[in-house]
């Protein structure tokens, strides 16, 4: 459906995390009235008619993934099957009814348990503000003795996580994001990819008290992701008081205590 510039200007005022949903609801409402274009007047009428409804969540969870599996050159993993299994676990947990009981009314988008998946460290799917986040990464192996001192790794590393010693490359694990760029350019195998898998982060959220997700597990495989998700959901439901986000629960328990409960 075509939007006039004036209507689009109003849409841009809507918070980004519900903008897509609002657009869909407005178009659906106007289509039912035979409209083929959204004008400023139409948008304001729809806004009045739909007030409150666009912010309601149909389910107690949401899953967002990047498009890496569709051919992105930066993708380190292809997680279509993983996403399907994640959704099965979320549905089996009965989160919609659980959260409705905790909230005591209609679910809003900010009530939902949010899962994010990024196929590489670029994190296009905003994994750092999700309750449970997964991002693809490599497991790096370093063999300094194989280094030819060509310095190609220094040139390609955007994080400046590599330096050359007399013995060969040294990697700063605090700066390295495990993107694999150095392994693809290293001509001798001094820097090589040992495996591919996932890093898990938990507790991210926006809202009044935003919180970036905290690393829970630095590296695991698909089965590890699924097992940890099930345990995180168990603690989330056991410790949830009023439908709060996982980050709030982690802050109340303390991260180390939370970690003990799920690992």
From TrEMBL:
GO terms for molecular function: 4 iron, 4 sulfur cluster binding; heme binding; metal ion binding; sulfite reductase (ferredoxin) activity; sulfite reductase activity. One of its GO terms (cellular component) is sulfite reductase complex (NADPH). Residues 138-166, 167-196 form the 4Fe-4S ferredoxin-type domain. InterPro entries: 4Fe4S_Fe-S-bd (IPR017896), 4Fe4S_Fe_S_CS (IPR017900), LI-POR_suB-like_C (IPR013580), NO2/SO3_Rdtase_4Fe4S_dom (IPR006067), NO2/SO3_Rdtase_4Fe4S_prot (IPR045169), NO2/SO3_Rdtase_4Fe4S_sf (IPR045854), P-CP_red_C (IPR042298). One of its GO terms (biological process) is photosynthesis. Keywords: 4Fe-4S, Iron, Iron-sulfur, Metal-binding. This is Nitrite and sulfite reductase 4Fe-4S domain protein. It comes from Thermosulfurimonas dismutans.
């Amino acid at each position: 459906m075509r939007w006039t510039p004036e209507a689009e200007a109003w849409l841009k005022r809507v918070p980004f995390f519900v903008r897509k949903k609002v657009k869909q609801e407005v178009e659906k409402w106007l289509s039912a009235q035979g409209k083929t274009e959204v004008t400023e007047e139409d948008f304001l009428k729809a806004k009045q008619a739909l007030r409150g409804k666009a912010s309601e969540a149909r389910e107690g969870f949401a899953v967002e993934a990047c498009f890496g599996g569709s051919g992105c050159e930066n993708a380190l993993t292809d997680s279509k099957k993983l996403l399907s299994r994640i959704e099965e676990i979320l549905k089996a947990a009965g989160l919609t009814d659980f959260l409705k009981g905790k909230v005591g009314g209609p679910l809003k988008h900010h009530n939902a348990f949010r899962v994010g998946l990024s196929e590489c460290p670029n994190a296009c799917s905003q994994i750092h503000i999700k309750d449970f986040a997964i991002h693809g990464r490599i497991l790096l192996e370093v063999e300094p003795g194989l280094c030819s001192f060509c310095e190609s790794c220094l040139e390609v590393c955007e994080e400046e996580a590599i330096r050359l010693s007399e013995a060969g490359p040294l990697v700063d694990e605090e700066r390295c994001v495990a993107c694999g760029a150095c392994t693809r350019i290293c001509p001798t195998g001094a820097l090589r990819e040992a495996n591919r898998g996932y890093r898990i982060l938990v507790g991210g959220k926006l809202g009044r008290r935003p919180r970036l997700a905290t690393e829970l597990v630095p590296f695991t495989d698909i089965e590890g992701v699924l097992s940890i998700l099930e345990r995180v959901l168990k603690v989330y439901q056991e410790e949830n008081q009023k439908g709060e986000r996982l980050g709030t629960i982690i802050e109340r328990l303390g991260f180390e205590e939370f970690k003990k409960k799920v690992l």
